[in-house]
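Private note to self, pasted from the team thread so I don't lose it. Backbone tokens:
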């Protein structure tokens, strides 16, 4: 039978190199080393008294505490992003108000801004960052000194009064960080949405695969076990009166049981997905129609099978669905056809774009007359008499689902004058057929 193993879930090769997936201490440690080294290098220019060196307050213990304090606060950026943003902003502002050497000190505040935006605190990040920058310029304007006295004044905050160029430069850097954070946030949202969509798609595919497997198991078991049950009853009835006929019934039981075991092994092997090799048993399809009719005849049915049109290989899905519909129809005829020999007519019409499967029997297990049920829109609830005739089950529903899955139609119902008719129209994909 044709059963494909469930496809494995695709996995990305290797870990994703994202800062969000790193341990929380990695970025703070790196920034602490970078800021301390960078600040020391900036101070070294002042110690050399180069003509282009900017005057600054000499580094002391408080300066190094501020330089390392910003990265240390970043340890809280995932649990308390707003607190981290406020703390790093205060530390950075206090450092520059003290007139210490320029360096990479603002990087800790930049990371805190990105963390706040990434966590979804957009308004707080924008308002807090721009407001904090404005507050710093306001304080610097109030307590500021002349630029050439920076770091040399006896003031507690020997910061020069801000100039337009300096304010624009700082504002530009802040805007770059804020926009970058917004882009990172949007990218993270798209990635999360794609991940959810992928998980839902895999869940839906797994559900469809389970449904398909359940349908395959039903068709395999229902057909063969029904045949075994019918022939076992015949063998018991004729065991004493007609041993030869009973022997033939037992032989049919043996063949049917062998068939069901073979197909069950194929299904279970696909479920286990032990390898990617093709199933060892013959593929279930219309090429085995004569074999299927022979087993039905051995079960006591009179089967007449015929075809019309251009008989040719079909796409695998269409071929399997047609075979299962015929198989289930024969099963139902054997189970519900009533007493006496039931004649079943199977006709397969190979159209240019459609395959029509029609199975009719003259059994008396269903009442005569009545409207047929269209598989695409029968107007009934799925639970209402949607199963095997006449008492309900999964047979007709499974055939209807097979046809609908291919975009075809399905009709089943009593025939005028008695008996039962099943008709399915399945589309043939011309491109898939050529391949």
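Design output:
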């Amino acid at each position: 039978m044709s059963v494909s193993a469930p496809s494995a879930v695709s996995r990305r090769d290797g870990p994703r190199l994202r800062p969000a997936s790193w341990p929380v201490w990695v970025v703070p440690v790196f920034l602490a080393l970078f800021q301390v080294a960078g600040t020391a290098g900036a101070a070294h220019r002042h110690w050399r008294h180069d003509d282009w060196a900017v005057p600054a307050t000499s580094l002391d213990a408080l300066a190094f505490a501020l330089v390392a304090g910003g990265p240390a606060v970043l340890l809280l950026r995932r649990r308390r992003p707003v607190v981290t943003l406020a703390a790093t902003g205060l530390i950075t502002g206090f450092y520059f108000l003290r007139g210490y050497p320029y360096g990479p000190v603002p990087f800790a505040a930049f990371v805190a801004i990105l963390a706040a935006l990434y966590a979804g605190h957009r308004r707080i990040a924008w308002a807090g960052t721009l407001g904090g920058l404005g507050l710093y310029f306001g304080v610097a304007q109030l307590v500021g000194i002349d630029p050439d006295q920076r770091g040399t004044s006896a003031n507690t905050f020997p910061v020069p009064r801000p100039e337009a160029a300096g304010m624009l430069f700082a504002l530009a850097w802040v805007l770059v960080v804020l926009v970058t954070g917004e882009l990172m946030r949007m990218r993270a949202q798209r990635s999360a949405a794609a991940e959810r969509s992928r998980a839902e798609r895999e869940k839906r595919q797994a559900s469809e695969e389970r449904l398909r497997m359940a349908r395959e198991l039903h068709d395999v078991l229902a057909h063969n076990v029904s045949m075994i049950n019918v022939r076992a009853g015949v063998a018991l009835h004729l065991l004493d009166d007609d041993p030869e006929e009973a022997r033939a019934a037992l032989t049919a039981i043996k063949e049917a049981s062998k068939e069901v075991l073979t197909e069950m092994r194929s299904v279970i092997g696909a479920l286990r997905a032990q390898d990617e090799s093709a199933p060892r048993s013959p593929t279930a399809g219309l090429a085995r129609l004569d074999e299927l009719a022979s087993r039905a005849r051995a079960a006591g049915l009179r089967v007449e099978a015929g075809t019309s049109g251009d008989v040719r290989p079909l796409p695998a899905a269409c071929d399997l669905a047609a075979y299962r519909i015929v198989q289930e129809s024969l099963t139902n005829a054997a189970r519900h056809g009533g007493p006496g020999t039931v004649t079943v007519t199977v006709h397969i019409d190979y159209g240019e774009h459609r395959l029509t499967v029609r199975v009719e029997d003259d059994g008396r297990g269903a009442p005569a007359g009545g409207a047929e049920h269209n598989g695409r829109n029968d107007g009934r609830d799925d639970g209402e008499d949607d199963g095997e005739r006449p008492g309900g089950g999964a047979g007709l529903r499974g055939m209807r689902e097979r046809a609908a899955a291919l975009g075809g139609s399905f009709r089943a119902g009593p025939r005028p004058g008695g008996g039962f008719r099943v008709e399915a129209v399945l589309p043939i994909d011309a491109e898939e057929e050529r391949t």
